[in-house]
Amino acid sequence: LGQCKFLPRYPFAKPKIESDQSEFAVGKTWEYECLPGYIKRSFSITCLKTSKWSDAQQFCKRKSCTSPGELLHGSVLIPKGVVLGSTITYSCDQGYRLIGDSSATCIISDNIVTWDKDMPLCETIPCEPPPAISNGDFYSSSREDFFYGMVVTYKCHVGPNGKKLFDLLGEKSIYCTSKDNRVGIWSGPPPQCIPPVKCPIPEVENGIMESGFGRSFSLNDTVMFRCKPGFTMKGSNIVWCQPNSKWNPPLPKCSKGELLAGGYRNKKSRPPYRHGDSVTFTCNTNFTMKGNKSVWCQANGTWGPTPLPTCESELLGMWKLVGFKLCIWVIVFFLMIFLLYYVSHHTVHPRFPV
């Protein structure tokens, strides 16, 4: 006859009566009770003909902890419910940081199920006061407390009747942010208040000013140019006034003459040229084109694509080929002379007895 071995041990139940008996006859039953943390009830297992004890898994159900509730300015992740042994995770919304533990587990304490840790808090991420600047000050909704998302704006001091004394260099506004969602930092450095910038009146020979008309030019002022008919621009058509009171990039130049030596443009294309205009070239007789035959006026006032096309004289190309071949023949000639000289002076002639 079959027999079952020792009483099985379960993480969720224990025998009502302990026994050290090592063998049990088929058909023998034994009573168990659920452990604390599981719904309290009794059940029996039976020694089966297969010499195994009947299954007990379905008899003890885990108890549940109370609902964790809502986390203000945050969220609670409950991946596997709130039954005994489950773990939940807390996280805060953007701009808030977690004060307390980021997770809690449902455990047994004094024979009852409860969370092992209290719910944390989510508080707004603070920033240190914004940096002070010379000859200026910042303005915001508060001058004492600064939190995530707050914006401060800088302004330079002015003289009597609002007279401008300084130029603001840099971003006028910065805001409180965070890289790790815990420590608050400012989005960038504060601007500077520098002495007023005055750039000279920009003058381009054979050029026409299209925008930025004025008698004086201050920091970040921009001016746009175009060349007079019959002239081609070299450089950027837009410049702006820099903190060093100079124009950047350098002022463009308007040069007279065709765009291509040894060739001519199509009749439909005439200056002045604007951004997006195209010009197509044809080389003169006895000239060969190198590169793209069409170019376009780019946003920076230059022609592209580069390198620009060129018209090379076929006669010049022929002379280049003749010159190259002539150089080869000269080199071969001198090598032959050197070889003959070397052989004639270093050959040992045999001597025969007389």
UniProtKB/TrEMBL annotation:
User: What SMART domains does this protein map onto?
Assistant: CCP
Coiled-coil segments: none
Annotated localization:
Membrane
Q: Which residues cross the membrane?
A: 326-344
Listed GO biological process terms: regulation of complement activation
- Listed InterPro entries: SEZ6_CSMD_C4BPB_Regulators, Sushi/SCR/CCP_sf, Sushi_SCR_CCP_dom
What are the alphabetically sorted keywords of the record? Disulfide bond, Glycoprotein, Membrane, Repeat, Signal, Sushi, Transmembrane, Transmembrane helix
Q: Does the keyword Disulfide bond apply?
A: yes
Tell me where the signal peptide lies: none
Q: Which Gene3D superfamilies match?
A: Complement Module, domain 1 (2.10.70.10)
Q: Which domain of life is it from?
A: Eukaryota
The UniProt entry, under CDD domains, shows: CCP (cd00033)
Which cysteines are disulphide-bonded? 4-47, 227-254
Q: Give GO cellular component annotations, separated by semicolons.
A: membrane
Residues covered by the Sushi domain: 2-62, 63-124, 125-195, 197-256, 260-313
Annotated family: Belongs to the receptors of complement activation (RCA) family.
> What protein name applies here?
Complement C3d receptor 2
Give the organism's phylogenetic lineage: Eukaryota, Metazoa, Chordata, Craniata, Vertebrata
